[in-house]
Design a protein that fits this description.
The chain is an alpha+beta fold and 395 residues long. Helix content is 41%, strand content 12%. Among the domains are: 70 residues, no CATH class; 150 residues, Butyryl-CoA Dehydrogenase, subunit A, domain 3, CATH 1.20.140. Helix 2 packs antiparallel against helix 5 and helix 6 packs parallel to helix 9. Keywords: FAD, Flavoprotein, Oxidoreductase.
Length: 395
């Protein structure tokens, strides 16, 4: 079994064969993947070495100390945090061999075609249809998706579509990998409160998907999607950050750098939020350690719920702390960014963008239900539509 000493030796070998100072970024990332040092817990040949997940931190630290380039989670976060775990858990050998490496190196960006205009919080009510072509075995997809981050830069998408409208809504769904360069895929920007168009709506017209790009069994898409959703909430709410990193770091820096803005009341709120941020950081670290035992559970929903509340509270405090300067907003130009930047922009941007944290990745209301039922064991809310065929539901 691979241990820490073996991994350190592999890191030294990688650095010797591909010196960071003279190796291009993409070439280094490809070599790192091939050496099994991308995701050490993945199988050999798929970026890993079948090692304990907990050993990844040592690999990352050793490479960072040597100045080695890393991939860009801000740009490819959907691929890393959502698509990759699902491909690994439910994809065929061919699918995993084809997609995981360029996903990890960032050569191929991924997006998530889940939410629809009539199926956001109630995702299982989605109506995008996938119909099997009897002659070729391919699937023909028609429908509309919305709130799709990175659709304007993505090469591939994870897609949920309804394949049997005669079954109840959770049971007639199938999960696919969709080619975003297909001529039937149309991406339109959705301008947000911040002025930019980070999200998109996507129209699918006669999109042909080979059956080889199906993940899981036909009609079993909801079970596959739960893998994606559980990992999504962990990747959003449990991201690894340093102490006093992220949003609380910006607010604390204002407090230190602008003594003329300080008041006793704001100081007390800052201290409370600093403690909350540290608790969230440590809880996220514990959650990541628990992932070594397998797929994330409902605890990730609690992390994502807390993340949204904390981001909104900290960004509100920063705006209040800055007084009149907190109302300034640097640029309303309509752009289509490749990533969300919570720390490199001004306080006005952070305040506005944080409003979306309680919607994206599962609304706070839905996550409260998950925590209540699956963590606290409270009785579920009545659901009259669970056993009704999807085609008979009121829409």
């Amino acid at each position: 079994m691979t241990d820490a000493a073996d991994l350190r030796a592999r890191v030294r070998d990688l650095l010797a064969a591909h010196p960071p100072a003279t190796t291009g970024r993409t070439d280094f990332l490809r070599a790192r993947f091939d050496a099994g040092l991308a995701w050490v817990h993945h199988p050999a040949g798929l970026g890993g070495l079948d090692a304990p997940r907990s050993l990844q931190a040592a690999v990352d630290a050793g490479l960072a100390a040597a100045g080695a380039p890393d991939n860009d989670p801000g740009r490819i976060g959907i691929g890393l945090g959502m698509a990759a775990p699902t491909l690994l858990a439910h994809g065929s050998d061919e699918v995993r061999a084809r997609f995981l490496k360029p996903l990890w190196t960032g050569e191929e960006v991924w997006c998530q075609l889940f939410s629809e205009p009539g199926a956001g919080s109630d995702l299982a009510a989605l109506g995008t249809r996938a119909v099997r072509d009897a002659a070729t075995g391919d699937w023909i997809v028609d429908g509309q998706k919305v709130w799709t981050s990175s659709a304007h830069t993505a090469r591939w998408a994870i897609l949920l579509a309804r394949t049997d409208p005669d079954l109840p809504k959770h049971r007639g769904i199938t999960y696919f990998v969709c080619d975003m360069t297909d001529p039937g895929v149309e991406v339109r920007p959705l301008r947000q409160l911040t002025g930019e168009a980070e999200f998109n709506e996507v129209f699918l017209t006669g999109v042909r998907i080979p059956d080889a790009h199906r993940l899981g069994a036909v009609g079993d898409g909801w079970r596959v999607a739960r893998t994606t959703l559980m990992n999504e909430r962990v990747s959003i709410g449990g991201a690894r950050i340093p102490r006093e990193g992220g949003m609380i770091g910006r607010a604390a820096a204002v407090w230190r750098d602008r003594p003329e803005l300080r008041t006793h009341a704001l100081h007390r709120r800052l201290l409370d939020l600093w403690v909350d941020s540290e608790v969230a950081r440590l809880t996220g670290e514990r959650l990541r350690q628990q992932l070594a035992a397998g797929e994330p559970g409902p605890e990730g929903s609690a992390m994502k719920l807390g993340f949204a509340r904390l981001h909104q509270a900290v960004s509100g405090l920063e705006v209040e702390l800055l007084a009149d300067d907190g109302l300034l907003y640097g640029d309303w130009t309509m752009t289509r960014p490749e990533r969300v930047d919570f720390t490199g922009r001004d306080a006005g941007y952070r305040y506005l963008r944080a409003k979306g944290n309680s919607i994206e990745g599962g609304t706070s209301e839905v996550l409260l239900n998950i925590v209540a039922e699956r963590v606290l064991g409270l009785p579920p809310e009545p659901r009259d539509d669970k056993d009704v065929p999807w085609k008979d539901l009121a829409r």
